[in-house]
Amino acid sequence: MKKPKFTKMQIRLSLGIPAIIVFSTLSSGILTLSLCKLVHDQKLSNLHIGIAVMAVTMIFFIIGILLARGITNPLQKIMKKAENVLPEGRIPHTSDEMGNLTSIFDEMYLSLNKFITDRQILEGIPEALIVLNKHGTIIRSNQIAEKFFGESLNGHSYLDVIPDCSQNVELAKIINKALKGEKSVQSQILTFKNRKQETYDGVVSVFYTKEDAGYGIVIYIKDLGELNRIREQIKRTENLAEIGTMTSILSHEIRNPLGAIRGLVEIIDQSISPEDQRKEYLKRIIDEIDRITKLSGDILSFLRINRLQLEPGVSVNELLSRTVSTIKYEFLDKHIVIEETYNDALPPIDADPNKLIEAFTNVLVNSFHATPANGKITIATDCADSFVSVRLQNTGSYIPQEKREDIFSLSYTTKSKGTGMGLFLVKKIVSSHEGTIEVESSQSEGTVFILKFPLSAKEAYA
To answer: In CATH, what number is assigned to the domain containing residue 173?
Structure first.
């Protein structure tokens, strides 16, 4: 890089400052001596006066030169450092040294703004981007590229960044050809490895770019890993959909003959005497048929869980009251006290009524089973914080803290005839309505299930 000369600045300051000082010194010296001669009537020769003036002048001339250098040297250093920041060919020159320095700082400001803008663009690109100069040194890269290769890249040779292994031979070959100016590559699928021994599948493009110091190349890498994962997820989803269809068909095919078998078993049961030992076997058969029938129904419910048929203006109070009145007759022999408290001002919600009834039924059946004879079940509804809440509490049961999440897991059950899908379905139904379900339990108060459903937008902002 050609360095500019600073002779103009040196001459102006080195001569200008001493000249001003000398002129001021001479003027004040001559005036002082003249006044002294007049006042004290001293007989001073012209030679003495000349020697004194010359001595003082030389002293101040030297001081002036030192002062000028004290100003010019820092300015020279500032300008040299500023020019080192700017690329070759971007150094402005003016006839005025201060204007020269001002122009250099203006160029630095513009270069800094361009650097910031380029950096923002680089980081905004969603794929890995690496820029090499003609020597193969990385001069720019974004964070995704650094993530791929596992280290800071700028300033390193590409040979230091890309490990020398069989997976990287093709990538190195493409870069070498590009640096030699042979050809560029667009959208070539490659497998390569970084220094952490992590393997990536990517689409690599290499093309030329014009740099301030000559030509360079840009390496653009699109990671196919995420795309492949999405494809695998789609494939799994399609497979699950097919399995779901087959399971639905099987559930229907199983339930239909089971009903007929159960009817035949009941006929046989009625035809034999009460003392016949075979009655016990027939009862077991009926119980198992009922369990399989319920399991088939739960499987069908699970497969349809996301097929909500939302209706506006659904009354949670009405659905809950209807569900309670249907279930309680199955447990009359336990003499359970049912206390219902419904908030009359409860706003309606957008929901699938059939799915809500199914959720309420599963929770209530669990509550009735868990409540001992002569126990109590409390049912209440309320509205707060843009949510409608349903509180179902039963006495006599306790769920330890470490088990409260497990009860919503698939196939978790404590009942011999249970399928383990009841509460699992409840949580899925509530979640599909963008609601939540919580469990509280204590040995003194029993267990509480709290179901919350969001209000519709109309009701929430009413």
So the answer is: 3.30.450.20
